[in-house]
Amino acid sequence: MPLTPASRKERRVIRAGFAPKRAAAFLEGYPDLLNTKHVAELTGLSEQTVRAEINAGRLPGCRIGRRLFVPKPLFADYVQSGGGLG
Hints:
This protein is of the alpha+beta class. The protein has five helices and three strands. 47% of the residues lie in helices and 13% in strands. Strands 1-3-2 form a three-stranded antiparallel β-sheet. The chain is globular and about 30 Å long.
């Protein structure tokens, strides 16, 4: 199933730190481990910024080999807690 990028409104909701009621539905269709490209699509940030946030420990993630991933449940928690705001 092809992944569709988040709409502008959905990206604004995530960047604003609001937890959409349909957070589970919002992440539906994405794999359990989100790569930096997926997180960039969902947040509107660049892949480089996503990598920097993971490496700095501000975004929960893990490294498998040379690739960075964010577990989907941790990303949902991160968004619901306000993300990197404040």
